[in-house]
Amino acid sequence: MKQFSESLPDWLAHQPLQPLFLKLLGLCDGTGLYIVDRDQRVVHWSQGAEQLSGLKAADVTGHPCLQEYAITEAGDHKKQRIQSFKTDGRRVELRKIARVLYDRQGAFSGGLGLLLPVSEQPENAALPKTSSEAEESEKQGFHGLLSRTPAMQAVFQIIQNAAETEATVLVRGESGSGKELVAKAIHGLSARRNAPFLAINCAALSSSLLDSELFGHVRGAFTGAVKDHSGLFQRAHGGTLFLDEVAELPLELQAKLLRVIQERNFIPVGGDRSIDVDVRIVAATHRSLREEVKMGRFREDLMYRLRVVPIFIPPLRERREDISLLIWHFIRQHNAANFRTIEKIDPQAMKTLLDYTWPGNVRELHNVVEYAFAVGRGATLRCSELPPEFREPRTAAAQVTQNSPLSEAEESAAIRQALEQSNGKVSSAAGSLGMSRATFWRKRKVYGI
Questions:
Q1: The domain 150-312 is classified under which CATH number: 1.10.3720.10, 1.20.1540.10, 3.40.50.300, 3.40.50.1000?
Q2: Tag placement on the chain: N or C end, fewer CB within 10 Å?
Q3: Which one, of 117, 68, 110, lies nearest residue 91 by Cα?
Q4: Which of 72-76, 242-246, 304-308 has the lowest mean pLDDT?
Q5: What does the pLDDT average to over 24-50?
């Protein structure tokens, strides 16, 4: 720590500290200095911090800072490396040095942060031309999942460890968060990687069709069954079966699924003999199975069989540092198609994207980038090229995505409102509420909408 002269404290005691401090900030405006209060809201963001981070003072001052810029009480004198993306797509690695501040009563009151550049990539870093970019993406990617947040890194480690076992896995996450990618990663890392990986959405079919699709049927089992049909369990023998939206599985089929897990065999629809099968199950849901059990809609014994290894995927709104990473990842993918090349993002457009709550998570973000490529032209992505919902105020319908329980009347009203705002387009309405299309249809039927 720097040692100050003995005369400095005595000199400071006779100075008006507020004007002195403000003049010091003015002198340091060219450095990457910033200040946050106890609630992690930005109270000062220097011009140097703007240039290093690509974030404008007008956009961040008075708002909660991004997680990588936070300064906690335990962070005094800590140094860490963070990555930032400028609005022109350049990726810059920064070193953050933090100093904690206390008020006159000794309570934590915020902190000073200093950003220093470590390395900076060339102007065309947004384009997939450099090997260093590919190496960096590989570091932040994991079998199709892309993230640099600690929460997702922990998820990656659980996937890695679970894949080495034969345990049944239950993936919990909102619509569009990447549950199937998690299932594919588990399969790809397991000893079953060379056997089939099959998937089915349990909410997409009626009970009878789902029964036949999962367990197969024999000839003559029902009208139209003109020949034997092998179900997914039989076709996935030796491999992995992914059961998406497993909470939507009808109760009568839950009993058959439990038998397969326990006994490793099943009887096809209309059959009279059991078929042995060796299949690993990875299930997924956006609902709490415990709550479904309490409501009498899900078997408790099956819940425990499915959630041997539970994995929770944080929604995109809780890992904001991934938003710019994913935006540029999808931009690079579309740039490769040579239809349009985006090299920069307008600062206001980037702020709008960072502030959005992303109810449809990564899938919605990908769709937004695709929309911008379709409707816009030129090398800069602008606000006018974002979907209409980015220019509209948020409504009560967004409550559905905030994990707060809604009454049937509130949920019904939210569905009606989503349909009105999307002009009757089911996919858009379902995405705005964080629901799958199948779940959205089922709820419309329940509420008679």
A1: 3.40.50.300
A2: N
A3: 117
A4: 72-76
A5: 86
Distance CA 79, CA 99 (A): 10
Q: Look at the domain 316-447 and name its fold.
A: Helicase, Ruva Protein; domain 3 (1.10.8)
Look up the CATH superfamily of 7-120: PAS domain (3.30.450.20)
Please give the pLDDT value at position 208. Answer: 83
Looking at the predicted structure, is the pLDDT value of residue 415 above 90?
Answer: no
b/e sequence 390-422, b meaning 16+ C-beta within 10 Å: beeeeeebbbbbeeeeeeeeebbbbbebbbebb
Alpha-carbon dihedral angle through residues 254, 237, 187, 327, given to the nearest 10 degrees: -70
Sort strands 265-266 and 240-244 into parallel, antiparallel or unpaired: unpaired
What is the three-state SS of the chain?
CCCCCCHHHHHHCCCCHHHHHHHHHHHCCCCEEEEEECCCEEEEECHHHHHHHCCCHHHHECCECCHHHCCCHHHCCCEEEEEEECCCCCEEEEEEEEEEEECCCCCEEEEEEEEEEEEECCHHHHCCCCHHHHHHHHHHEECCEECCCHHHHHHHHHHHHHHCCCCCEEEECCCCCCHHHHHHHHHHHCCCCCCCEEEEECCCCCHHHHHHHHHCECCCCCCCCCCCECCHHHHCCCCEEEEECHHHCCHHHHHHHHHHHHHCEECCECCCCCEECCCEEEEEECCCHHHHHHCCCCCHHHHHHHCCEEEECCCHHHCCHHHHHHHHHHHHHHHCCCCCCCCEECHHHHHHHHHCCCCCHHHHHHHHHHHHHHHCCCCEECHHHCCHHHHCCCCHHHHHHHCCCCCHHHHHHHHHHHHHHCCCCHHHHHHHCCCCHHHHHHHHHHHCC
Are the CB atoms for 373 and 440 separated by under 8 Å?
Answer: no
In angstroms, the CA 362 to CA 367 distance is 9
